Amino acid sequence: MLIDAHVHVAFNNLYNKKLWEAASIDKKIKYIKEILRRYKKYKISIVRDGGDGLEVSKLAREIAETEGMIYKSPIYAIYKQGHYGAFLGKSIVDVNSFKKEFQILLNNRLDHLKIVMTGMVSFKKYGEVGETAFSIDELKYMVETAKYHNIPVMIHANGEEGVKRAIEAGVDTIEHGYLISEAELYHMAEKSIIWIPTLAPLGNILASDDMRFQKERDVIYRVYDGQIKNIEKAMKIGTKIALGSDAGAYKVGHGSGLLDEIKHFERTGLSRQKIEEMCFENGAKALKL
């Protein structure tokens, strides 16, 4: 059994925001069922969503039950106003606005709290990941609030500073984690934080010889290769790693994306059997199953 620990059901080739908002509930259910059945086709019956601004993952969680699947939803992600993350959820400006949003999330039975800490990795300039959005005090407050309610925390973070703060705050999983040092890998291992490196978004662009990013290929390859090397180091250190495809990202399909992720992981020298075991065992821990 395989677990995809990081997807975005709202982003796909079936509909866009305009079509979704105009669709009837029956049409929305049809859309989601088609996507969920793509996962089942590849024997993936357990999925964790990283959130969206349309709350599609909330509906997907309900429909997944009828498909015999386990689907974990944050309802929507939390990001800081003026920073990256608008398409993933709702913004907050301070602790007080977080309290209001978190209560709404609790009312909607979130499975995990998703926090957007940094931007995406730049394809144009090596090393850029955008600003680190939340201070350590803000992040600690959000993490401690979630844990008081027994809610795990997944955090989108790239770069050393953003990941350091996430580790210090005691999050449960770090998503992406590109452009980090060996020190962060050690600290994740020490705190039993699970890392989900999401190789497929960059790896699939490189594998496809995509014309859209021809000028950026050198930077993309450098970031991707660094991530492969960090995974190799993490395995030696004992950092727990789960697999998440980031399905819904450019060139990462739902269902097929996890198989792509496994292929990229094979570049580390791990056997397919070992990767699939890690995918299930650490994926189950990441989802608190």
TrEMBL record:
Residue stretches making up the Amidohydrolase-related domain: 108-289
Pfam family, one: Amidohydro_1
GO molecular function term, any single one: hydrolase activity
Keywords of the record: Hydrolase
Domain of life: Bacteria
PANTHER family attached to this UniProt entry: ALPHA-D-RIBOSE 1-METHYLPHOSPHONATE 5-TRIPHOSPHATE DIPHOSPHATASE
Protein name: Amidohydrolase family protein
Naturally occurring in which organism (per UniProt): Anaerovirgula multivorans
